[in-house]
Amino acid sequence: MSELNLILLGPPGAGKGTQASRLTEDFGLPYIGTGDLLRQHADEGSELGKQAKSHMDNGGLVPDDLVIQMILDKIDEEGDDGFLLDGFPRTVPQADALADELEKRNRRLTAALLIDAPDETVIRRLSGRRQCSEGHLYHVEFDPPKHEGRCDQDGKPLKQRSDDRPEKVAKRLKTYHEQTEPLKDYYDERGLLRRFDGTRDKVEVHDHIRATLATLRLEERL
Ligand SMILES: [Zn+2]
User: Fold this and answer.
1) Per residue in 178-211, pLDDT tens?
2) In which order are the strands placed within the sheet that holds 82-86?
């Protein structure tokens, strides 16, 4: 048995999304992003989706047990050999609940992959992002368009997503430090944490993660 049951951790802007899409290709793992999962259930009008929607419509958060149920359904459908979970858990109680549910299925996490980056890197990366209405992405400092404020591909104006505005970024970071950062210690104490330097080039980070996972797989087989 060499399942790869993985979760991704790290602040916004550390490059989790990029690494997730590469890893799912490398290892043929289903990517379970909780944001996508919630949208999918809402679009399909599933029973869980309807329940989640009623909470969101009332301005509340979707309860943990609903999200976990969606995740487990997806794991049961596609995750026999493993999965890559992104966006959950975000808090210690969620991590406990996930561990309990996995244990009921005789499964456990293989690793928690932390892609870390200091606040100043996150702020610099996110606040410089610009996007056209077709979704083409630029960065004012690292990947600027040929003509300022215009998309190279279609000439449409480039805008900043509201999530990337400085005050929003600061808020996202604050939430991350308060709620999610304690998960570093949580998974470290359980021997599951693997750290990666999100300030490095994404190809380097990818290589490092792949090497780490290959080692984990070998260890599982021994
Ligand atoms: Zn464009």
Assistant:
1) 999 999 999 999 999 999 999 999 999 999 999 9
2) 31-33, 82-86, 4-9, 111-116, 193-197
State yes or no: is 146 an active-site residue.
Answer: no
Please check the confidence at residue 1 and state whether its pLDDT lies above 70: no
First-to-last alpha carbon distance for the chain, in angstroms, is 10
Instruction: Choose, from 107, 150, 156, 172, the residue flagged as catalytic.
Output: 172
Can you give the pTM of this predicted structure? 0.88
165 is catalytic: no
What is the rounded CA–CA span in Å between residue 109 and residue 206? 20
Using CA atoms, how far residue 146 sits from 43, 149, 150, in Å, is 38, 9, 8
pLDDT digits (tens, 9 = 90+) for 104-148: 999 999 999 999 999 999 999 999 999 999 999 999 999 999 999
Q: What is the DSSP string of 19-58?
A: HHHHHHHHHTPPEEEHHHHHHHHHHHT-HHHHHHHHHHHT
161, two tokens: 């997503």
Q: Which two tokens stand for residue 142?
A: 């690292």
Read off the pLDDT band of 19 (50, 70, 90).
very high
Q: Which residue of the set 105, 108, 159, 161 is catalytic? A: 161
Closest to 7 (Cα-Cα) out of 102, 110, 145: 110
